[in-house]
């Protein structure tokens, strides 16, 4: 078969085509020739290594992944393409990893061929669920630390995430080529924080390719092979999925036991649905089609899954003829930030719904509930893991699916204990509210609770004062403070989630000149004095503009909102009173003056009573209009107010 392809290509290459075409044909020959002879199923279990790369944002994970791909021959060196595994447009524009990507590498070590399954993970706290899922298919991790910046907040979080799963940790100091790099200082930080011995730490420069071979050899020597059984019935963990418009839902699986072939009938433990395997492939990083996958490998399966609900992350896949015990799955990530998503026009509702369905398959951490608004129409209430997660999801909707969504201001989920009433016989009933429009009346509320987080801040000590002031301003309570070395401090604060989701990170970077890093984790609910801040326009409440705030900040937030609305609401024929109200008390007010027609312009003289009569008639008409008129706000005004 290969000789036939070779002869056909040779004939085309001899024809009068351009040199570029002949080079492309030769590339096809080379790729076909190189991929065909390798039988991945014959690599024994003891020569397989599954590992992830974890680090803080911008510490060089994707660059290190590029060098590993080049060193093992998966991609051509100096191909001109950087961050090969960052395939999304949003990742290249922002310079961050959003989606974990897998790739299978081959490396000859001491005369034996090793299969290295690499998973490149995100570094931002909002995508920690991607990291957690990736680690479930690994036996070890590369912990990358910047030799210039040192240990950062997300470095600490990712270390303990891997440590809790009992994975082998290979510490790597990156960017040792920088002028201000201080590897000895950072090595001492690793020893004081994580008890990592200095001789275990590898020093590399991913940009220049220095020390890459030592990293690969350390992976092979330190990380243990997967504990799997190829003779047992087939069983695999589905830990990632995405949507292909031609093939439907594609699932990335880690095979724990047995083997799978094209044409096998498999069943999902979650949905109990049966599928026929249409395609099997390995990612190198392009798809390489294979007819069989065996235990210990990470591969991609296509089996005609049509909808996002069928590809359940954490599901166990097995042969339909041989039921097995399900593997331990994942705890579903709990959304922490909620926002309303609406189409720019209701005629785009169907297209936006289809785009959200496909994108939630790729990003299973997003929760979706149907919502509606009198001002914006039918839409959805989406839950995200953080503000960056929300921004990236919105950007992907626009870039990948051509949608133009309207996103309302983000909010969090509050817990409310209701009083006993005649309609509510059961006392102490708890409800959860993430939409201010659904906040119950004050007379029915017994107690309110807000979500809390444990925030970890690592900063140079010279910025300690301003950062502590910022945390106190955001109602934070200090837990502890630890000196990492002579000039860096790690702070831990209990912070309300609603105080950090909007601009806390930006404020922290501003006051620390960009040197401080921030990470947070969920810490349950805490009793708090929360109130509903309502906006009235001429005495009529506008629910879309309502907000849930702490009572200590109700007046300042109310003042900001009425000033903003005064600028954005267009003037009308009647005077508009914009009021911020909390518990029946007016906290702030601004007045939007009405348009005034000069009804006395036609007068050219005469008694002043004629002028006064016309002005009195105008005033009476304005008063009557204010009594009967409903204020008409353009849809664009709601969009401008809700998005800010």
TrEMBL record:
- What membrane topology does this protein have? Peripheral membrane protein
Any one GO CC term of the record: mitochondrial inner membrane
InterPro entries under this entry?
A: EF-4, EFG_III/V, EFG_V-like, G_TR_CS, LepA_C_sf, LepA_CTD, LepA_IV, P-loop_NTPase
Keyword Transcription among UniProt keywords: no
- Where exactly are the transmembrane stretches of this chain? none
Q: What does this protein do?
A: Promotes mitochondrial protein synthesis. May act as a fidelity factor of the translation reaction, by catalyzing a one-codon backward translocation of tRNAs on improperly translocated ribosomes. Binds to mitochondrial ribosomes in a GTP-dependent manner.
Family the entry assigns? Belongs to the TRAFAC class translation factor GTPase superfamily. Classic translation factor GTPase family. LepA subfamily.
Q: What is this protein's record name?
A: Translation factor GUF1 homolog, mitochondrial
Please give the organism. Tribolium castaneum
The gene for this chain is AUGUSTUS-3.0.2_07205
């Amino acid at each position: 078969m290969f000789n036939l392809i070779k002869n056909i290509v040779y004939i085309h290459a001899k024809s009068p085509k351009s040199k570029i075409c002949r080079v492309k044909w030769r590339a096809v020959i080379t790729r076909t020739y190189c991929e065909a002879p390798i039988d991945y199923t014959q690599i024994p279990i003891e020569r397989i290594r599954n590992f992830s790369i974890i680090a803080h944002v911008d510490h060089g994970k994707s660059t290190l992944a590029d060098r590993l791909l080049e060193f093992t021959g998966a991609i051509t060196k100096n191909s001109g393409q950087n961050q090969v595994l960052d395939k999304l447009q949003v990742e290249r524009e922002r310079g961050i990893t959003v989606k974990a990507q897998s790739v299978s590498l081959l490396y000859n070590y001491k005369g034996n061929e090793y299969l290295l399954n690499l998973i490149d993970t995100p570094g931002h706290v909002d995508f920690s669920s991607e990291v957690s899922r990736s680690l479930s298919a690994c036996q070890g991790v590369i912990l990358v630390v910047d030799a210039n910046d040192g240990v950062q907040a997300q470095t600490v979080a990712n270390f303990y995430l891997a440590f809790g799963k009992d994975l082998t940790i290979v510490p790597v100091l990156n960017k040792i080529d920088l002028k201000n790099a201080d590897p000895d200082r950072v090595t001492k930080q690793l020893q004081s924080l994580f008890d990592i011995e200095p001789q275990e730490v590898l020093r590399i420069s991913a940009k220049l390719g220095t020390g890459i071979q030592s990293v690969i050899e350390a992976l092979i020597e330190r990380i243990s092979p997967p504990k799997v059984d190829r003779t047992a019935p087939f069983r695999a963990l589905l830990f990632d999925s995405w949507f292909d418009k031609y093939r439907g839902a594609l699932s990335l699986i880690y095979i724990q036991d047995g083997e799978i072939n094209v044409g096998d009938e498999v069943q999902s433990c979650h949905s109990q649905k049966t599928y026929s395997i249409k395609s099997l492939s390995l990612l190198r990083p392009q798809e390489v089609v294979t007819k069989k996958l065996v235990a210990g490998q990470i591969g991609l399966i296509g089996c005609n899954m049509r909808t996002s609900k069928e590809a359940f992350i954490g599901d166990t896949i097995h042969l339909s003829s041989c039921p097995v015990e399900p593997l331990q799955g994942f705890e579903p990530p709990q959304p922490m930030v909620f926002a309303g998503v609406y189409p720019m026009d209701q005629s785009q509702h169907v297209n936006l719904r289809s785009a959200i369905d496909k994108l939630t398959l790729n990003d299973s951490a997003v929760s979706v509930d149907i919502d509606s608004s009198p001002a914006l129409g039918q839409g959805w209430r989406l839950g995200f893991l953080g503000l960056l997660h929300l921004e990236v999801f919105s950007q992907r909707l626009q870039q990948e699916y051509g949608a133009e969504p309207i996103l309302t201001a983000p909010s969090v989920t509050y817990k409310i204990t209701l009083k006993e009433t005649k309609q509510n016989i059961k006392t102490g009933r708890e409800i959860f509210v993430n939409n201010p429009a659904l906040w119950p009346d004050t007379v029915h509320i017994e107690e309110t609770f807000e979500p809390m987080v444990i925030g970890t801040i690592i900063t140079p000590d010279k910025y300690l004062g301003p950062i502590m002031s910022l945390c106190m301003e955001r109602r934070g309570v200090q837990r502890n403070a630890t000196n990492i070395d002579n000039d860096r401090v790690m702070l831990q604060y209990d912070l309300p989630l609603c105080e950090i989701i909007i601009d806390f990170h930006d404020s922290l970077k501003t006051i620390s000149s960009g040197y401080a890093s921030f990470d947070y984790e969920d810490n349950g609910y805490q009793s708090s004095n929360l109130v509903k801040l309502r906006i009235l326009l001429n005495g009529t409440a506008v629910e879309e503009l309502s907000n849930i705030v702490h009572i200590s900040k109700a007046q300042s937030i109310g003042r900001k909102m009425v000033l903003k609305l005064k600028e954005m609401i267009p003037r009308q024929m009647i005077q508009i009173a914009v009021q911020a109200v909390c518990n029946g008390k007016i906290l702030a007010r601004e007045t939007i003056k009405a348009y005034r027609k000069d009804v006395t312009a036609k007068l050219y003289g005469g008694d002043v009573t004629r002028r006064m009569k016309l002005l009195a008639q105008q005033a009476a008409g304005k008063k009557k209009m204010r009594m009967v008129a409903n204020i008409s706000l353009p849809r664009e005004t709601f969009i401008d107010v809700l998005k800010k």
